[in-house]
Design brief:
The chain has one domain: Alpha-Beta Barrel (TIM Barrel), CATH 3.20.20.70. Helix content is 45%, strand content 15%. An 8-stranded parallel beta barrel has the order 1-2-3-4-5-6-7-8, surrounded by 6 helices. Helix 1 runs parallel beside helix 3 and helix 12 packs parallel to helix 13. It is globular and about 45 Å long. The protein starts with a strand and ends with a helix. It binds phosphoenolpyruvate (PEP).
């Protein structure tokens, strides 16, 4: 039985005051019964990780980062290492997000290096994959997602897979208000699980959590989470409002 995992990706939003207020507000809005059913994490911008870590102290909400670099240290201006994230109490890191792939130009090979470094450092990757609208319309979804998964997870062992969450995020649904139907999500999630079975084994395939991401909101969360292979949500826009994100999380209880 897989426990639900719902994470908020704040992207390049909030400021020092509102980041702390959002974290505190969320911690107050969720009671103990929630955490029995759902693991919860928030991924603020790097510069507010410490503020948010302070605000979340004593709560059961985990902290995640939105990116990381694969080198330990050195002349990599503007980059952040896994050790730095660990210093700030990060448990998770989002890797392969569509905005990193399509806006910032990250390749499968780079994402794979980051996956290896994150796992070796004790960070748990939320590994995001998903197709563009044109790829869905030309029936390439399975092929695109398969390639992203095979390349992104190349060399990752079965033991390491215990710390990996996969996020299926159709790019056409991210930040657009257009959500995949629960059936569309389930179809791809089932294909991902079948692929993980082929790449690893039944234990790993049964245990790996696959989040859906793409315009999740309180009004569609329960239906999405009701699907057999949807084990949680990665939430962008709606994670920036306490009421909306708490509503989404409570849909999983
Ligand atoms: C995301 O950025 O991972 C995401 C799913 O965004 P949104 O919920 O805003 O579509």
């Amino acid at each position: 039985m897989r426990k639900l995992f719902i994470a908020g990706n704040w992207k390049m939003n909030t400021d020092a005051k509102s980041a702390s207020a959002l974290a505190l507000g969320l911690a107050k809005a969720l009671d103990a019964s929630v955490y029995k059913a759902v693991d919860v994490a928030v991924c603020p911008p790097f510069v507010y990780l410490q503020d948010v870590a302070n605000a979340l102290a004593g709560s059961k909400i985990s902290l995640g980062a939105q990116n990381v670099y694969f080198e330990d240290n050195g002349a990599f201006t503007g980059e952040t290492s896994c050790a730095m994230l660990k210093d700030l109490c990060c448990e998770y890191v989002i890797l392969g997000h569509s905005e990193r792939r399509h806006v910032l130009g990250e390749t499968d090979a780079l994402i794979n290096k980051k996956m290896h470094k994150a796992l070796a450092s004790g960070l748990k990757p939320i590994f995001a994959v998903g197709e563009l609208l044109a790829q869905r319309e030309s029936n390439e979804t399975d092929k695109v997602v398969k390639t992203q998964i095979e390349k992104g997870l190349a060399g990752i062992t079965a033991e390491q897979m215990k710390d990996v969450t996969i996020a299926y995020e159709p790019v056409w649904a991210i930040g657009t208000g257009k959500t995949a139907t629960p059936e569309q999500a389930q179809e791809v999630h089932a294909a991902i699980r079948a692929l993980i079975l082929k790449m690893y084994n039944k234990n790993i395939a049964d245990a790996v959590r696959i989040q859906y991401g793409g315009s999740a909101k309180p009004s569609n969360a329960a239906e999405l989470l009701g699907k057999q292979d949807v084990d949680g949500l990665l939430v962008g826009g709606a994670s920036l409002k306490v009421e909306d994100f708490a509503g989404i999380i409570k849909a999983g209880v």
